[in-house]
Amino acid sequence: MRNQNSTLRNALEVFDTAPVEDAVRTLLPLCGSQEWARTLADRRPYGALAALLAASDAVFPALPESEVAAALSGHPRIGERMRGEDTAAQLSRSEQSAMQSADEQVTAQIVQGNQDYEARFDRVFLIRAAGRAPAEILAELRRRLDNDDAAEEREVREQLRQITRLRLEGAFSS
Questions:
Q1: How far is the C-alpha of 14 from the C-alpha of 130, rounded, in Å?
Q2: Contact between residue 30 and residue 56 where contact means Cβ atoms under 8 Å apart
Q3: Which listed residue, 10, 60, 113, 160, has the most CB atoms within 10 A of its CB?
Q4: What is the pLDDT of residues 51-100, one digit of tens each?
């Protein structure tokens, strides 16, 4: 545990003391919102992962819709593999790895659900896929298709917050 805590402290120390533009570049693959990344970079130092996570969580409710859309642009449809080898692509593939175990019927239903969702809400369906089975993802997709626009906006922000939180934990605890 001591080595892990030491590594965590070192990663946060480097982040906390980096030039602002370097800190922003560190954050952008974790959440594609420039405003989110800039806000977190400007509020440094954090000193502890819990403080960084709390600061990140606090940013999401006030993000303009354009920044939410920017963040969503870095996420592929559920079931689609993001191309590339950059950090965001690697994270996305890892988070959606359970989708590879989906049977053909569930996969086809998710593809159709993605199309229905995009027609309904004019954006990609976003869900924290990490730790969820394909059938659970499908059930959530179906449930959220019944949301009104305001409820779905809240859900998208919450899912984005959860994904970003997991990514921050991974980035600053490895």
A1: 27
A2: no
A3: 160
A4: 999 999 999 999 999 999 999 988 888 777 656 666 665 665 555 555 56
Q: How many CB atoms lie within 10 A of CB 110?
A: 24
Distance CA 82, CA 111 (A): 15
* Phi/psi at 23 (5° precision): -65, -45
Alpha-carbon span 73 to 32, nearest angstrom: 7
Rounded distance, CA 119 to CA 92, Å?
Answer: 23
Q: Which amino acid is at 77?
A: R
Count of all residues that appear for the chain in the document:
174
Listed in sequence order, the DSSP H helices in the chain are: 2-17, 20-27, 34-42, 49-59, 65-72, 87-95, 104-121, 134-144, 149-171
Per-residue pLDDT reduced to its tens digit, 11-36: 899 999 999 999 999 999 999 999 99
